[in-house]
Each structure stands twice: as C-alpha cells, then as structure tokens.
Amino acid sequence: MWITFCLHLCCYVDSGEAQNAKEVILLDSKAQQTELEWISYPPNGWEEISGLDENYTPIRTYQVCQVMEPNQNNWLRTNWIEKGNAQRIFVELKFTLRDCNSLPGVVGTCKETFNLYYQETDSEVGRSLRENQYVKIDTIAADESFTQGDLGERKMKLNTEVRIIGPLSRRGFYLAFQDVGACIALVSVKVYYKKCWSIIENLATFPDTVTGSEFSSLVEVEGMCVSDAEEEADNSPKMHCSAEGEWLVPIGKCICKAGFHQKGDACEPCGRGFYKSSSQDLQCSRCPAHSFNDREGSWRCDCEDGYYRALSDPPSVACTRPPSAPQNLVYNINQTTVSLEWSPPADTGGRNDVTYRVICRRCSWEPEECVPCGPNVGYSPAQSGLVDTYVTIMDLLAHANYTFEVEAVNGVSDLSRTQRLFAAVSIATGQAAPSQVSEVIKEKVQQRSIQLSWQEPQQPNGVITEYEIKYYEKDQKDRIYSTVRSKSTSATVNNLKPSTAYVFQIRAFTEAGYGTYGPRLEITTKEEATAAIVSSEQNPVIIIAVVAVAGTIILVFMVFGFIIGRRYALAVKFPGTKTYIDPETYEDPNRAVHQFAKELDASCIKIERVIGAGEFGEVCSGRLKLPGKRDVSVAIKTLKVGYTEKQRRDFLCEASIMGQFDHPNVVHLEGVVTRGINTEMKALTVKPMLMRLNNSNRDHWSIFRKPVMIVIEYMENGSLDAFLRKHDGQFTVIQLVGMLRGIAAGMRYLSDMGYVHRDLAARNILVNSNLVCKVSDFGLSRVIDDDPEAVYTTTGGKIPVRWTAPEAIQYRKFTSASDVWSYGIVMWEVMSYGERPYWDMSNQDVIKAIEEGYRLPAPMDCPPGLHQLMLDCWQKDRAERPKFDQIVGILDKMIRNPNTLKTPVGTFLVLYSAEGTPELNFTAFCSVGEWLEAIKMERYRDNFTAAGYSSLESVARMSIEDVMSLGITLVGHQKKIMSSIQTMRAQMLHLHGTGVQV
Ligand code: AMP
Are the C-beta atoms of residues 639 and 626 closer than 8 Å to each other? Predict the structure, then answer.
C-alpha cells in the first residue's frame, strides 16, 4: 500500500548556513534546478520530485516511502563526481524521515534509517548499478523524525548529517543511498572538500593548498617573499594547512630589502633624503649629517663634496673630512736628536681617530733642495700612527738642515684629494760625537806587542783629534781594561804577554766628545820563540848575550838583504819569519825562478803520459830520478811551442811562487827545466817518449828547441772537485774533515807567509793517493787566464764569483780573509761531494743573494758545527771571519771529538742567515695566511687577499711600495713584513735557482 504524505517542503526549518569559504563544492543538488537524473533502482523505489526550499527556491529532491512492503532494497545513485585534487571528501546530507510510530499498520516493515555507499572509479561507468561494487560509508539515522502532528504544524524537522570519505585514489566516485523500508525525503546532497586559500603572511605569499588526507594531517607550505622583500637569514617563511582548511603554525618570515620598508603586506621604497642600509633595519632613516640622496629606494646616502666615509664607517654615521693641521708645533734639539711637540688640530674633521705622522727632509742650505731623510733616521715612538702629540727623531746628521712636517690624519685623510695640511719646522742640528770605528786591521803581531791600524769612522761629525784603544786580556776573570791613545789611525800596543788572547776596541774623539766603541777584535800574541828567551827573563847576562847575538844576526841579514834588495828589488827572508816574495817585483823574472826553483837536468825526467791540459801546454805524468836519490812520480807541466817571452815568464812565474813554499799541504815543486836538453838526453829519454805520445803532434819537438818544464810532485787522484764527484758519498765525515783540515793547514802556511791565493776552490786542490789534499795553482795571471770560472766583473778583472768574498768582488780587496771566505766555499764543495756552489743560479743572482745576507745552506748530512764554521767564513765583515789558524784548531778539535760531527736530521732545507741563526723555512708554509700568522702580522691577511696576493710566490715579488699600497701604514710593520719577504725571496732563490725575478 502506498502511503502518500506531503513532502512539500515549503516551510521546514534549516539553519541556512552560509557557504564556508574554505570549501570547494563538487556537487550540490540544491544548486540544480533541472532534473538530477540520478539512477534509481528498482523503478518503484526512489523517485525524483520538485519542491521549494525555505526561500521558496525550487529544488530537486528524491524520496521513497515503501514502509508497508517487506524486504525493501531501493538504490539511488548520484552522477559521477570528479574529485580534482581532493583527498578527503565531505558528504553533507539533508533529509527528513517519517517516524514509524506515527504510521498506522507498518509494524515490522517500517524502517527509520538508510545506508550511504560510495564507489571509486577513474571515469563514468554507465547506468547499471551493482550493489557489490559499493563500499558502505555509514548507516544514517535521523536525529529527528517527524509525525503527523508536526505535519499539521506545517513544520518538518530537517536532519543534517555529514560523513567524510577518503583518502581517495581514483579520479572520481559515485554516492549511493540504500533504502530498506523507510519513509525519507532526501532534500539536498552536498559534496565538497576543504582547502586553505592563498594568503600573505609575514610578507610571504602562500598559495591555495588542498588539505591533507587525514583529519590530523598538516600540509607544510613554503612561502614566497613579496616583491622587494627577502627571506630572513636561515628563517625561510613556512605555514601549515590543517585538515579544516585553516593556516596554522607560521614559521620564519620575509623582510623588506635595503632601501625598502614595510607597509601592510608590501615593501615600499624609502623616500628621497631617507635610506635603509640593511634589510634588518625596520624603518627608513633620514640621511646622516653631510650626506644626501635624491632618489627613492636608497640603501645609503652620498657624502657632500669635501666629506668622506672611511671604508669601515657604517652608512649610519655622518660623513667626515680630514683634520686641519696640528697647532703650536715646537721643537727641541739635542745634538743630532730632535723632539717635536704640538697641540691637536682645531678641527678633527668630525672624527675621533686622529693620529699624526712626521715627514723628515734633509735640506741643503738652499731651502728648495730637500731630500727624504731615508731609513737611517730613527723615530720614537714611531714615524706614523702617533696617538700622542710628540715624537723624537734620532740619528740625524750633525750640522745639517732639516725640515719636519707634522700632519694630522684621520680615517678619511687618504680618501681626500684636497691639499695636505701640516705644521712644519726647519731645524739645524748641532754637534755630534763621531760614529763607530769598525774597520780595524792587525798590522803586526809580536810576542809582546800588537800593531793595529783602522779607517776613520764613516761619520766623523767633526775633526777627530784622538783615538782611544781599549784592550783587555780575553781570559782574565775580572776584566781590567787598559787604554792607549793615538792621534793617527794606527797604534802599537806594547807590554803584552806572549801567547795571550787580547780583545781590542777603538773609539774616536772630537770636540763633541767620544763616539761609541767599534766591534771587538780578538788577537793572540805570538808564542815565545826559544828557551833562551824564556830563561832570559831570569838572567840579565843571558839577555844581553842573546840580544847581542840576535842583533848581530839581524845586522848581517840586513846588510845581506840590502845588497840583495838592490839587485832583486825586494825584501829579505829572515829565518823563522819567512815571507812570500812577489816574483813580479824582480826586474829579471829569470832570476826569480832560479832564486826559488831548482834547475833540473832534463835527463833525470822521464815523461810517461799526458794527464791534463794546462793554460800553457800539456800536463804529463812521469818520473824524476835525481842523482843519489830514489826516483819519484812527478807531474810535468810543459810550455807549448811558439811561446812568447811573456808566456814563458808567466809560465815560470808559477814555479817562482811554488818554489817558495815548503809545506805538506802545498803542492811541492821539484824544479824547473829552462836551459834546454843535452844531446845524450835527447836520444835517450825525450825522443822515445815523444814517439809514444802522439806522433801527429809536432809541437812536442819544441822540447828540442828550447824546452821549458815545471816539475811538480805527482798527485795521483788529480783535482779534488772531480775526485769527490767520482766518489760521491763514499767517505766518512771524519775523512772529509781530514781533507778540509789539510787544506786549512796549507792555507794557514800560505797566509802566514803573506801569500793571498785569490782562487782557492776545490778544482785547485790536488789529492794524492793517501787522500792528502794540497793547495795548488799558483801564479799571478792564473785567475784571469786559467780559471774557467772567472768572469769579468764591474770592478774590472776576472773573478770566480761563487768562490770570492764580496769585498774582493766589489773593490778587489783580496786578503787572507777573502781566502777564508773561499775556504768556506771549498768546505761546502767537499761536504756536498763536489756540488756546484749556488747550483745553477746566475753569477748576478749569487752576488745579489750574498749582498742580501743569505748563505749556502748546510749540504745533506753535514754536521751543524761544520756548517757553522762555513757561515763564520762567510761573515760579511772580513775582520769577523776566523783566521786559518783558528780553522785548523776547530777542525782538529772536531777530529779529536767525533761526537761533535754527529749528523743532524734534515738540515738540508733549514736555512741560516749570515749570522748563522736558523730562520723561518718558507717551504713549510702553504699559504699567505700561515706566513702572516708566523710573523704575527695576521691582522693584514685581508689586505693581502683584497690586493690579490694569494700565493707566497706573488708575495716574494713585492716591493716596499707594494707593501705600502696595501694600506699598511705603520712603518714598523712595513719593515717587519718587508724583511720577511726578503728572506723568503732569498730562500726561494736558493731552492729554485733563478725561480723568482728580483
Ligand atoms: P793546471 O794547469 O795546474 O790547472 O793543471 C791541469 C790539470 O792537470 C789539473 O786539473 C790536474 O788534473 C792535472 N795536474 C796538474 N798538476 C798535477 C799534479 N801535480 N799531479 C797530478 N795531476 C796534476
């Protein structure tokens, strides 16, 4: 039975909620006024009817009311609903439901619920309806059903139920309503999902965002800064979209960029005359004093003309200008020291970083001609960066005119192009004491007296009226000084003890007073010669006798010397004080040869083979058999055919020199052949020998004409440099030191005789079969003609640069002290087994490096004591170098205590300055930063980086101007950095040869 009841919905109660802004509607049955055309099955179940809502708007509804029939199963399915981005779908149902109790005769069949289903599909599936494909969402019951009475009041209770489905995965779905025997009117079906709508929060825009699939899920969304805004550092803007479509939990923010400020949800440019220097600032500020801008959106203001901003000034501070000149400059002179004092400038330029700098100029008496004072002048506390208003300037020249300018500077002085403002004074210095007496030479050392001479000090600062020589016994406990005065630059100190070391110092005296003492000079008096003299101290009779005998001997020698001197132009040799005589001083060089060399009979000489080439001819080996003596091996130097008279003289000169020497470490001359060969000998000896030699070389027949030969002891192992290279690494340190000791002993002998070698080098040392080293290569022209190492220098003459002391290179000052320098190089050659000194550096680079104070590093495995001795030999001041006598003593001590020769580890790369102090090894640094740290100048790291000095190689090329251009204004720092750069440069030269351009 059909029960029809009014479902004219003209007047039911509906709260009529306004549509929620967070919802996106997928289906709203009320919004459609035409037929819905949902599928209803069976056909007599749900039926679509038209009605009016509470506003009398026509709506389409479905209703069913088969309450009387049992077993109802009426299905109603919506059209396909495309879900879009949604994951969580809301289904809102509005319906009315009839109370079964209010219906008569329906007991057992009437129901008060219906079921809600859905089916997910990717597209529409047609109009058939299969129950088993649907998923049940819920059984829907009415909160409020209505009765006939209600109807009577024309009011029906409208139920609203909302169900949520999801997460959904297909593109769309259907909803289905199953009625099992209720009386329902489905007034509206609304399907929607929720979304967080785009908003601007904290100057960031967040886009429309669909909520997550779960009730509790929050979707995190990144915000985008609005224009002219930027993300706050490490705080990017984020928000979270809740399942309810609400934005929650804002994190981070955007802020307006420099030059912009916030207005509402946007950034606006700062107005003219305003600036905002950083995004961190909230507001635009008015331009600070002496600055302006005439455009919008500025991050800073420009300085007015004549005003500046220092690099370190923030944009918020006023622009400033250089200070005015210091005021009230006053001075005080004390001899060669000037003190200046002043008051601060009237105008500090608006800054509080005012310091002062002093510029010193020395002027000729014409005021226009002034030159900078240079580095010899001292400033206390400093020349620039002065915080206090005074400075003392020292070490000025006496009696000189100076101008001092005192300038006040502040942080913007260097930016200003306006004229410098300074206070100035012109001053004439007064008298000063003389500078040091440093060049002292020992002229004559006796048992009880020492004669000294010296050079006038470099700055006498007046007329020197007297010198004072102070001396004391070196080993005396309580140092008692004695003094001697001299009006000239030499003096003899008497009454000294024999064999005693004394220390001497000299100072000069002028009207202005005494100068400072020069460096200490240590000299040991000679040993007492004979026992007679020792005992003579007790016996006056013996003294008289000894003096009388000695006097007679001296007299005899003087007379004899006088006669010979007239003939040979030079001095006499006294027994015990043998002195070398320069053969050049002989009028007739032939006489010199025969004075010092034995004429040999050529028949005693047997030439065996050619062993080398000398400057004047071949060098052969052979044997010498003198009558009544054993035959000995000899080297025979020959003079080549066609010689000139000068060549003959020069050739024999070596013999004249060598013949004067008699020492186990100096090559021994057997004699010379100058007078030709007798006929017998020709047949017996020379001819067969020559046939053996080289038949094609007809020159050898010159021997038959007027042969000239020098016969020398034979040195089996030839020259030392080649010998060491051949036996690289094969000797013990003791053996090497033994060789060095021999060479030093030979040189001590030569220097004691007053002979200066000038070409001491390993190539000029010969080695015999017992490893005994002997000094060789004598002769006056040999340095110039014979030595392939010798090159012409600017001072004229050829010099073997690598072996020669700087003073000999610079002004040809060849002395035993310059031989000591060369000896140091020989030590280095020996300890490095014949390595070339200064490797492949050019001669010019060697001279420069030496001048800059750098010395060869210790060869590999060289004991430090030996390297120290080398460094001592390479003292710039030749008076400071050890004497050969001392060198022999030191080496003897080392040989006696082999422990002192223990090899250190890794000395090769440790570099020593001329003073022997180890210095920073630049190979140990990887970066400019590390280097600056090591010299405690790391504060300038940024200055170096900003100027592009990124490698130590680039730093090594810097000049003082480059250093100053980095903005390093403190003179002390400039000097410290520059001196380290010079060291670095020299080390690089040592390590890489000519790798750095200097
Ligand atoms: P000199 O002209 O003195 O430089 O001699 C040329 C070369 O001859 C030297 O380099 C040595 O190899 C060799 N020589 C010179 N003198 C001797 C010697 N006394 N014993 C052995 N070889 C010598």
Answer: no
Residue 339: left (phi > 0), alpha (psi -120 to 50), or beta?
beta
Pair of tokens at residue 119: 């089916």
Superfamily of domain 583-674+711-902 in CATH is: Transferase(Phosphotransferase) domain 1 (1.10.510.10)
Pocket test for ligand 1, best of 608, 609, 611, 777 (most atoms within 8 A of CB): 611
Query: Rounded to an integer, what distance in angstroms lies between the CA atom of residue 373 and that of residue 241?
Result: 78
Q: Does domain 928-993 have CATH number 1.10.150.50?
A: yes
* Mutational pocket test of ligand 1: of 619, 669, 764, 776, the residue with most ligand atoms within 8 Å of the beta carbon: 619
Q: What is the rounded distance in angstroms from the CA atom of residue 114 to the CA atom of residue 108?
A: 16
Backbone angles phi, psi at 588, to 5 degrees: -115, 105
455/464 Cα distance (integer angstroms): 12
Nearest to 308 by CA among 296, 295, 299, 317: 317
Mean pLDDT of the chain: 83
CB contact at 8 A, 858 and 867:
yes
Grouping H, G, I as helix, E, B as strand and the rest as coil, residue 490 is strand
Mean of the pLDDT values across residues 845-851?
A: 93
- CATH annotation of 23-196: 2.60.120.260
Stretch(es) of the chain classified as CATH 2.60.40.10: 331-429, 440-524
- What's the fold here for domain 331-429? Immunoglobulin-like (2.60.40)
pLDDT score recorded for residue 901: 83
Provide residues with CB under 6 Å of ligand 1.
611-612, 614-615, 619, 635, 667, 712, 714-715, 718-719, 766, 777
Question: 708: CA distance to ligand 1 center in Å?
Answer: 17
Q: Which two three-digit tokens encode residue 818?
A: 């310059």
Ligand 1 centre from 757 Cα, in Å? 17
What's the CA gap between 224 and 232, in Å, rounded? Answer: 12
Give 711's strand partners.
636, 671
Q: Which of 759, 777, 787, 819 is catalytic?
A: 759
Mapped onto helix, strand or coil, the DSSP state of residue 748 is helix
Among 195-204, 267-276, 936-945, which stretch is predicted with the lowest mean pLDDT?
A: 936-945
Q: Which two tokens stand for residue 747?
A: 């040189």
Q: Which residues pair with 267 in a beta bridge?
A: 262
pTM of this prediction exceeds 0.85? no
Q: Are strands 401-409 and 327-334 parallel, antiparallel or unpaired?
A: unpaired
Q: Identity (one letter) of the amino acid at 742?
A: G
Q: What share of the chain is helix, strand, coil (3-state, %, to 5)?
A: 25, 30, 45
Spacing, Cα 656 to ligand 1 middle (Å): 17
Q: Is 2 exposed, middle or buried (0-12, 13-18, 19+ CB in 10 A)?
A: exposed
Nearest-atom number in ligand 1 for the CA of 764 is 4
Q: Is the pLDDT of residue 341 over 70?
A: yes
* Burial (0-12, 13-18, 19+ Cβ within 10 Å), 663: middle
CA distance 324 to 304: 18
Question: CATH code for 440-524?
Answer: 2.60.40.10
Pair 492, 449: CB distance under 8 Å: yes
